[in-house]
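Fig. S4 source data, part A: sequence.
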Amino acid sequence: MLKIEDMHVYYGAIHAVKGVSFEVGEGEIVALIGANGAGKSTILKTVSGLMHPRSGSIHFCDQDITHMEAYKLLRTGLAHVPEGRRIFQQMTVQENLEMGAYIKKDVSQKDLETVFTYFPRLKERRKQIAGTLSGGEQQMLAIGRALMAHPRVLMLDEPSMGLAPVIVSELFEKIQQINRQGMTILLVEQNAKLAMNVSHYTYVPVSYTHLRAHETRGN
């Protein structure tokens, strides 16, 4: 479904990602793991169109999306849940979810109920200001907002960051549940053990710029 070949990404003169290549198959959870500075978040930002590679290629469902703008990529079926959640703090839970469906003409009650099925606490708090939610609830909201766009690939950047272990366990059960319903997931995660437990394939840095795949078959 998603194929990255020999991708090089720069921040000015800094060569942040050097020659990275990997694939994500339909229906898989594929994880990128590694320490800070390995280029994991930069890879996701580049795939989602927030940055552009200096060289290399990105193909999604056999379409070259290497230099496509981020808003167009969302329409093709790529949704990115960024590190730090980036929810709209002053809006309600439901308003945040509705923002996730902005590319559609109407917000479907069925889509909202699908998100609430995965995350019942969001339904309980649908009228609550999002900034008053707990960290775990905000992460659930960020994922739910992305699901409202009906993506074919869901990209998650450090979903466990800053969360208590019991909340992380619950959250990753939900991620696996979403995957079992057919969603393809590209996951960036510092918690290597957790990522390898849930993913079909895990890419780990050989250096801090090149990635090598390990089949994990965690779920």
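Fig. S4 source data, part B ends here. The two ends are 19 Å apart (CA to CA).
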